[in-house]
Design a protein that fits this description.
Blueprint: H1 10-13, H2 21-30, H3 36-65, H4 74-118, H5 122-127, H6 130-172, H7 174-221, H8 223-228, H9 232-284, H10 290-331, E1 351-358, E2 367-374, E3 379-383, H11 390-397, E4 405-410, E5 413-414, H12 420-425, E6 427-431, H13 441-445, H14 455-464, H15 468-472, H16 491-505, E7 509-513, H17 521-535, E8 539-543, E9 555-560, E10 563-568, H18 570-576, H19 578-587
Parallel strand pairs: 3-8, 3-9, 6-7, 7-8
Antiparallel strand pairs: 1-2, 1-4, 4-5, 9-10
């Protein structure tokens, strides 16, 4: 299966179109603490700009009706220049202030989304690919930003202009203005159906864009796997398929715009021709002066250009409503359950599982009535075949998931009664993959520490993790960039940095998930020494497939098919647990010393 084929949640992304999207978009934007004073000033300036523009046609018409050279005095010229400057300055400041409001609102919205995503449960991230979620936060919010800063600003200004111009048109000649009013329903009848189609296309377009982003993100992130598997051609086809889907949606959008925009222009041109013809008849009959006709035509242009832009605005509004529906999926998700007011018991305590049942899918249970006790400040090892639930136990301890039935207790109190932040602060986790963030070695070691870490403390934990020597030998030492996912370091080096990070957290509970499974003998020896320091005076839980790493554990818990089938020390299980004895025999090749 290719990386592209792993995308199985497309149906979940295709949420039904919600006709209340406009109202939801409004509520969403106004939840971002709109700077009302600045918005008010911007609207006032926009009104001044629009009214200034409307004065010019009236002044021009009066000049034509009363045109004499002696009227062209300095005062009139200064007044016209003042009007032009006032319109330009108020328009510029209005645009800037409205852009500030729009950018700030979208910035707050992105922060809301980011905060929401950080506190969503792991089940949500199991269902959706990271590339799609990234697209929602970046691309979908950018559609909203474009609507506010580019189209909404023009819409507000144009709306004010049209209202003011219509008032003046009625004043100049109400009969011709009624003709214009008849055009409005026709234009709306054209725009509304196309707007609905644009909404549907926009939802699909954003989905295809998200799918392409997700595919590119995963393939580029796993390029070593792609090349090692000779999958370039396959991923080329998969990426091209995504691009073709996006291209088809973009062309559907282009076809609607190709009809909508020229149609609106045609309506405006026909309207202009009718007005000029009818206005000429009224001028010749003496019902209308030539100057008023010129004012009327100039005001008509003041309406035509904004009205033509309305089509673009409503088209983009429909697109944004589609993007809003996609953001809604994130914003309406329930957060991780948390009890922020609870107090965690003493530093060291026993950890208990009592009849815990859990499954990632409803019809497929991973743990079945798991009941066991992990003593404090001892080493407990989990062994068993793959898929028996060992890693799931770790996920439940870290509260990535909630048990379906049963509960987990720390010192007699259920861990779901503790504050998530405080509970996870007690846990140190070292996995087989030893994930690192892009940044320096220093960044990775102190990752997760909220207080200031001194240089001495940093070096000390690196020494205890047997990492200081190789770090000190690097040209930039602790400021060395590790690369994406720590690619610049070896597996053993990454593992020792992960151990240093765990040491710096000063955890009470230590989780080790196959911490030395993928290392060579020399690296494993170094990591084992580092783990020795890390495990001292801590409740340690180890997952291991190699029994040689856990034969000296204080307690070994055997899992088979999601159930606990044995608990004891190595020697006890050899005598009392046939499956464990068989695994030991296979791994130690029948050597009597095991």
């Amino acid at each position: 299966m290719s990386i592209h084929d792993e995308y199985t949640n497309k149906r979940d992304l295709e949420k039904p179109i919600n006709k209340t999207g406009l109202r939801y978009l409004g509520n969403l934007l106004f939840s971002t603490e709109v700077p009302k004073l600045i918005l008010g000033i911007a609207l006032i300036l926009s009104i001044i700009s629009s009214l200034s523009g409307l004065i010019v046609p009236i002044v021009t018409g009066n000049m034509i009706d009363q045109f004499r050279l002696e009227l062209l005095n300095a005062t009139l010229i200064i007044q016209l220049v003042f009007i032009f400057i006032l319109q330009a300055v108020s328009s510029g400041f209005s645009y800037y202030l409205l852009a500030y409001v729009g950018n700030r609102m979208v910035n707050q919205l992105r922060k809301q989304l980011w905060e929401k995503m950080l506190y969503l449960p792991m089940r949500f991230f199991d269902r959706y690919r990271s590339g799609d979620l990234m697209s929602r936060v970046a691309n979908d919010t950018n559609e909203i930003k474009s609507l506010i800063t580019d189209h909404l600003i023009n819409f507000i200004s144009n709306l004010i202009t049209i209202i003011g111009a219509l008032v003046m048109l009625f004043y100049l000649d109400w009969q011709m203005t009624l003709i214009i009013m008849l055009v409005l329903p026709i234009s709306l009848a054209v725009m509304m159906p196309m707007g609905d189609k644009m909404y549907t296309i926009s939802v699909r377009l954003q989905e295809h864009l998200a799918a392409l982003s997700s595919t590119l993100s995963q393939v580029i992130g796993e390029m070593r796997l792609v090349k090692a598997s000779n999958s370039e051609r396959k991923e080329l086809k998969n990426g091209a398929a995504n691009m073709d889907d996006l291209y088809q949606s973009e062309m559907k959008e282009a076809r609607i715009n190709a009809v909508l925009m020229p149609l609106m222009t045609l309506i405006m041109i026909v309207l202009l021709v009718v007005i000029i013809g009818y206005g000429g008849v009224r001028v010749s009959s003496g019902a209308l002066s030539a100057g008023k006709l010129v004012s009327y035509i100039l005001l008509l242009f003041q309406i035509m250009i904004p009205f033509e832009q309305f089509g673009s605005f409503f088209s983009n509004l429909k697109k944004v409503m589609g993007s809003t529906e996609r953001l809604r999926l994130i914003l309406e998700q329930p957060l991780e359950t948390d009890n922020k007011n609870s107090v965690i018991p003493d530093k060291h305590n026993i950890l208990e599982f009592r009849e815990v049942c859990f499954g990632y899918e409803k019809d497929k249970q991973i743990l079945l009535n798991a009941t066991f006790t992990i003593p404090d400040r001892k080493v407990t090892a989990f062994v068993g075949p793959s898929g028996s639930g060992k890693t799931t136990i770790f996920s439940l301890i870290e509260k990535f998931y909630e048990p379906e039935t049963g509960n987990i207790y720390w010192g007699g109190a259920a861990i779901d009664s503790f504050a998530l932040h405080d509970w996870r602060k007690k846990i140190g986790y070292v996995s087989q993959e030893s994930p690192l963030i892009a940044g320096t070695i220093r960044d990775n070691i102190i990752y997760g520490r909220e207080d200031e870490v001194s240089e001495l403390e940093l070096i000390n934990v690196a020494r205890l993790a047997y990492a200081h020597d190789f770090i000190d030998a690097l040209p930039r030492k602790y400021d060395t960039e590790v690369g994406e996912r720590g690619i610049q370091l070896s597996g053993g080096q990454r593992q020792r940095i992960a151990i240093a990070r765990a040491l710096l957290r000063l955890p009470d509970i230590l989780l080790l998930d196959e911490a030395t499974a993928s290392l060579d003998s020399e690296s494993e020896h170094e990591v084992q020494k580092a783990l020795h320091y890390l495990m001292q005076d801590r409740t340690t839980i180890v997952i291991a497939h190699r029994l040689s790493t856990v034969v000296h554990a204080d307690q070994i818990i055997v899992f088979e098919y999601g159930q606990v089938t044995g608990v004891g020390r190595h020697e006890e299980l050899l005598q009392a647990h046939p499956s464990y004895a068989a695994w030991a025999y296979k791994q130690f090749q029948g050597i009597k010393s095991y």
